[in-house]
Description:
Elements: E1 2-5, H1 11-14, H2 16-25, E2 27-30, E3 39-42, E4 50-55, H3 64-71, E5 74-79, H4 94-108, E6 113-120, H5 128-142, E7 148-153, H6 158-167, H7 178-194, E8 198-201, E9 213-214, H8 220-227, E10 248-249
Parallel strand pairs: 1-4, 1-10, 4-5, 5-6, 6-7, 7-8, 8-9
Antiparallel strand pairs: 2-3
Helix pairs in contact: 2-3, 5-7
Amino acid sequence: MIISASYRSDIPAFHGIWFQDRLRVGHVDVPNPYGAKPYRVSLRPDDVDALVFWTRNMRPFRDGLSAARAVAPFMVTYTVTGYPAVLERGVPPVAHAVREIAWLAATFGPRAVVWRYDPVLWTDLTSPAFHRQNFRRLAERIAPHVDEVTFSAATLYAKSTRNLKRLAPDVIVEDPDDAAKRELLAELGQIATDHGLTPTLCSQPHLLADPLRPAACIDVARLSDIAGTRIGARQKGNRPGCACAESCDIGRYDSCAHGCAYCYAVRDHAKVVLETDSG
């Protein structure tokens, strides 16, 4: 079993002590996002084939990675977008993220980290011209440490729209047609290629264009490379178009404190719940 930790939250940034406690206990009880009873997931080494961490700030969890690696091989998907602060109120500075990515790659190897430039958001502050310039500057700093960057065009879920109106009321949000999205994503993909990165697109096959390839954020081939042995897992995505390997996510919604205005995983940033050592 591959453990995803977690696309519903940022466990390394905010819940690292809780996660290490769960590793010692050997299981975690995960709230069911659809309202049913919580379900128990084993974290025993015999039951876990690999771990995938999703984060914007690995620094608080550096020590926890040793405990994680004692359970199973892992990879990190590290989101760095460099957006204006009004859109990402609590996100660490780009320089901090670059240092952490460099440390991860130097410590665990460049295959252990994938950069996410996600979501690609269209607003009056983040126009296509902004994205081209911003992404190029980020690529110059991050490309020496990773081999892949994953994109995703912003999907304006109801929670995302409400959060944007509440947290960034003066920002004009746009939702261009697929042709415009495809054009910008392809341009960003070419910039990535120019910097030696493989550009991939998450769960949006209708927006694929050269040089983009479908992303597998739960990447069994990469995890097998890291492990030095084949990890067996069938493809079973989380939504239509998702090319991920089958995994079990152990996070909970409404528990990320980064305060991103476009967030889909938090209903109300003022009521974010941080994990205790139970559960």
